[in-house]
Specification:
The chain has 203 residues and is an alpha+beta fold. 39% of the residues lie in helices and 15% in strands. The chain has eight helices and six strands. The protein has a six-stranded antiparallel beta sheet. It is globular.
Amino acid sequence: MEHLKKVKALLSTQQDLGKDPDTFAYHGTNLAAIRHLAEHGTLPTQGADATDFYYTSIDNPHLSVPKTRTPLADAASFAKGHALALYTIDQLRQNGIKIDEETREQLILLPDTGPELPDDPDLVKKLRKTISSFVQSGWKGVVLGLNNSLAQDFEQQDSGMDWYVTLPNGLDIQHITSITPMGPSESKILWQGDLSSFEAKWF
């Protein structure tokens, strides 16, 4: 993994989140995306880490975000949704079941809104069982800290709830200030530097 040393150098603890003066925004993702980062130096260009890259900023007074929400809490929730989607997709794939893109995106939203589950009763039953086991799994995703260069190098666009920029080649590691595992499962793998053993696939 060509960029593993850089990934390890960016590792941070949850106690340090919000304390880095160079961090101006956060993004939540999952361990499969971090493995891609270690291999290629960028996040994937598919799914919710894709060319339209969304993040929540520490200081965006023009966004219509409820006062009860904070950028860090948003990112942590999104990270958990990413972890849930990855876990569920991987578990179902092992049983020969493929999840379509719409259901994948709905799973990411689960911590906030709950997914709109598909009409297939058998698939819904399997999804609910997998989601239930996820709660006990120790997976909570990964939060990335982002630096100001992201805002300086790319035109920011307002989605109404957060910012996004279009990144044709994916988010480059140079824009990341910290990588924080949010659950014990992610922490164990990242702090041991054992990403090569992580085989769950996002696609």
